[in-house]
Amino acid sequence: MTQEQDYLVPLDNYLKVGLHIGTKFRTKYMAKFIYKTRPDGLVVLNIQEIDKRIRLGANLISQYKPEDIIVVCRRENGWKAVSLFSKYTGIKVFAGRYPPGILTNSNLKTFMETKLMIIVDPWVDKNAMKDAIKVGIPVLALCDTYNESNNIDLVVPCNNKGKKSIGLIMWIFAREYLKAHEKEFNGKLDDFIEE
Question: pLDDT at residue 135 above 90?
Answer without folding.
Answer: yes
